[in-house]
Write a structure and sequence with these properties.
By secondary structure, this protein is an alpha+beta fold. Helices cover 54% and strands 19% of the residues. It has a six-stranded mixed beta barrel with strand order 2-3-8-5-7-6. It comes from Geodermatophilus africanus.
Length: 799
């Protein structure tokens, strides 16, 4: 037979369904927030890991001079090399309009039915593609302005226009999503490669090391041995891409999401604790006289503590029934959306076991822990105090300075003055409610501030590159000739020839680090405005000085300004002095190899100009995207006529658009979280206001008995809710500063290896002020309207 105390608990749960629902909802919103963020995190990481492992990712890719099958066989026979595979990768120009062209990266695969590393998988259409046809990566089809079965007009490096029919779609998880890079990808056979005028050879070597592939030092050592073997064959390794083990191409976008998800989950957990403390305190306040009656007939404090903690446990179970399904649906929807952006396959709806365990812990243990103090404090009240309790204010309002100041206010309407007094009557309740809203508002504003910081960083990166078009050539060309050719075109305001190569730092024992790009340019250039984080920029009088960006520094974390480093450039070792550290230039590519900047004359004294690749930076008279595109097309035609083979032409506008798309993924994600937190804040305030209305039911009856109208009662509670919301706004804005600063720094380190340019979102703060006022009014309206509909007899008889 159920004991009386537990019958009371069950009666409390069933007897006041509105109160039960509101308390359970207050617990559920915290579980929902934690479950949604954790569920998204787990589903994304698991699906992505499984999808990535299925493609047999390589340990490294070496970009070299053309080689044949013999080099692949000799590499496979090396110790600690498990697998090696060759492909031919190159860029052609793709026509997307009458005078519009964009880069199209093609990859020639020798045997589509025997891809061993970085697998490209069929999506739909022909497999392998027939001769003079191409497979387009599924995420890139929209950038081609065509569909399966249509023909593409491409222009290889020889300048002739060819047609390639789209035979179907492929899925390549090892490629940067085309929506991020702005560059579509395609796959062809070696027969088609020859038809396009390229040699039947390989120029990229995909490698999988044997042994511990998670050991970066082991991987680096094996790849160094392979590089030495390739160079002994007389070929130059242009650069090596050695990804961090277990990471994939779009990891630089995923990791900031993971960081933000983790931070928001922890903050949501804290927010849930505040909600529980607030709601349980309000619940106990309603039952003060009941506690007095139970103690008068012999109930001990320990028994009452167990009774109310049991009530909390039941409410937690109800909250779990509400939150777990909703959180699972939300997490599934968000992870599906992110999967479509990052271009991996989601395995379907499910509730991960660890997320379920976390939700149960949050829904049961956190409420119990949060309720422990208010329960213990509440049941310690004496019988005399409990039986003499009269509800709101407890007879103590007006005794402190703040209360007396409120009483002296004149000129306000009676409902408004009553709202102000009621707001400050329960100061502990008020502080808990404000703390909950403050934390929610702080996180909301912090999310907007991280977004603003991302956009500020993008603007700074745009001004970093003071040119509009970059042109890469397939070999070394006379600088004066290619500059003169460009300057003859209408719309070209400046043209500057740069040299480029790759470099690797040589360590004390002869070990070499990862490759980074080396840009050789005039020290007094006007077409680059780097953001210098430490040290200074190059000077014409420098002798073998170098400025490293933060990505290049990531491969050599011990290097600082003033250090001398030994670089291996075109198989020559030379010493350079680091004079500055520059902010990484945001790029559409996710292969972050880093960049070092040196004076063109200095590099020419080390490496003959004939061994350097030529490139050109062009400034145009107008800077909009359409004008840049038209000038780029004219440059392509002019260099084709001059028999100067280009490998890539890219406008700064296109690059910025691709970077913006990367940022958009994160900002949309942040906006989703901000909306979630706004909902949590609204529900928490609704729960608090509902508790206030229930607690003051008899007071409402007295007001109604002396002639208060329904509208007057509504006004008192709605204004009270708005006042609570507005009181929390400035504190939330202040707290958002440290939270958003930390988040911006962490996200910046993931994106650019340096903190973002922090920008506090004033618009986000003002938006929250307006939003919290609206939410407070709506959250107060429903419980106040419910109270106003009660008869005088009902509310005066309320216990």
């Amino acid at each position: 037979m159920t004991r009386p105390r537990w019958r009371k608990v069950l009666r409390d749960v069933r007897g006041n369904k509105t109160r039960t629902f509101l308390v359970a909802l207050s617990i559920a919103v915290g579980v929902f927030a934690v479950g949604t963020t954790a569920g998204t995190w787990v589903m994304m990481s698991r699906d992505l890991s499984a999808d990535y492992a299925a493609i047999d990712p390589s340990s490294a890719i070496l970009f070299t001079a053309p080689f044949d099958e013999e080099l692949i066989r000799s590499t496979r026979s090396m110790a600690d090399v498990r697998e090696a595979e060759g492909r031919f990768s190159f860029v052609v120009r793709l026509r997307t309009g009458p005078d519009e062209w964009r880069n199209l990266r093609l990859e020639a695969i020798d045997d589509f039915d025997d891809i061993r590393l970085n697998r490209v998988r069929p999506e739909r259409g022909a497999w392998p593609p027939p001769e003079e046809e191409v497979l387009i990566e599924r995420a890139a089809l929209g950038l081609t302005d065509a569909d399966v079965g249509d023909s593409l007009v491409v222009r290889p490096s020889d300048g002739t226009e060819r047609e390639l029919r789209i035979a179907g779609l492929a899925h390549d998880l090892n490629k940067v999503p085309a929506s991020f890079s702005g560059t579509p990808y395609g796959y062809i056979t070696f027969d088609t490669l020859e038809r396009l005028g390229y040699p039947r050879a390989f120029n990229t070597l995909h490698l999988l090391v044997d042994g511990n592939t998670a050991d970066e030092h082991h991987v680096q050592a094996v790849i160094d041995d392979v590089r030495d073997e390739v160079e002994l064959s007389g070929r130059t390794v242009d650069w090596m891409w050695i990804p961090e083990p277990g990471t994939f191409a779009a990891d630089d976008v995923l990791q900031p999401m993971v960081v933000v998800l983790g931070a928001i989950a922890l903050l949501s957990l804290l927010l849930s604790g505040f909600l529980v403390v607030n709601t349980i305190s309000a619940l106990l306040m309603q039952q003060v006289r009941q506690i007095g009656m139970m103690k008068s007939i012999g109930a001990r404090n320990g028994q009452l503590v167990r009774l109310y903690l049991g009530l909390v446990l039941i409410l937690g179970l109800i909250a779990l029934c509400i939150a777990i399904p909703l959180a699972s649906i939300a997490a599934y929807g968000i992870s599906r959306y992110l999967a479509s952006l990052i271009n991996f396959d989601s395995t379907g709806f499910r509730i991960p076991v660890q997320v379920l365990a976390l939700e149960i812990a949050v829904g049961l243990l956190v409420p119990l822990a949060a309720a422990l103090y208010p329960v213990v404090s509440g049941v310690r009240i004496t019988v005399r105090e409990a039986l003499g309790f009269h509800g709101v204010g407890g007879g103590h309002f007006g005794r402190n300075r703040v209360d007396r100041m409120i009483q002296r206010i004149r000129g306000l309407s009676r409902p408004l003055l009553l709202s102000l007094r009621n707001t400050l009557r329960r100061k502990t309740r008020l502080l808990l409610t404000i703390a909950t809203l403050t934390l929610g508002g702080a996180i909301f504003i912090a999310v907007f501030s991280v977004r603003a910081s991302l956009l500020t960083t993008l603007d700074e990166s745009t001004s970093y590159l003071n040119y509009d078009i970059s042109v890469d050539f397939d070999a070394a060309y006379d600088a004066g000739t290619i500059e003169h050719t460009a300057m003859q075109l209408p719309g070209v305001a400046a043209a500057e020839s740069w040299g480029s190569s790759t470099a690797r730092q040589v360590g004390p024992g002869g070990s070499e680090g990862s490759s980074f790009e080396l840009d050789a340019l005039p020290a007094d250039t006007d077409l680059l405005r780097p953001v210098i984080l430490e040290g200074r920029w190059l000077r014409p009088e420098d002798d073998r000085a170098i400025v490293l960006d933060t990505d290049a520094l990531g491969n050599a974390p011990d290097v600082g300004v003033g250090d001398e480093i030994t670089l291996r450039i075109e198989r020559r070792e030379t010493t350079w002095e680091v004079v500055g550290i520059a902010q990484t230039t945001l790029s559409a590519t996710f292969i972050r190899i880093g960049t070092g900047y040196v004076d063109l004359d200095d590099l020419s004294s080390v490496v003959p100009p004939s061994e350097l690749d030529s490139s050109l930076r062009v400034g145009t008279t107008q800077h909009d995207a359409a004008f840049q595109t038209s000038v780029a097309a004219a440059l392509q035609d002019r260099y084709d006529d001059a028999d100067s083979r280009t490998t890539s032409i890219r406008t700064t506008a296109a690059n910025n658009e691709a970077i913006q798309s990367q940022f958009d993924v994160l900002t949309v994600f942040l906006s989703i979280l901000a909306t979630l937190l706004a909902i949590v804040g609204a529900l928490s305030l609704m729960g608090t206001m509902s508790m206030n209305v229930h607690e003051r039911a008899r007071e409402i009856g007295v007001m109604r008995a002396i002639g208060a109208s329904d509208g007057g009662v509504l006004q008192i509670f709605v204004v009270e809710g708005i006042l609570i919301g507005l009181l929390s706004a400035p504190v939330g804005a202040a707290l958002a500063v440290p939270i958003s600063t930390v988040l911006s720094d962490v996200v910046g380190e993931e994106f650019t290896r340096a903190p973002l340019s922090y920008t506090f979102s004033l618009g986000g703060a003002l938006f929250w002020v307006a939003l919290v006022g609206i939410l407070a009014a709506l959250a107060s309206l429903l419980p106040a309207w419910h109270a106003a509909r009660l008869s005088v007899r009902q509310v005066l008889g309320y216990e």
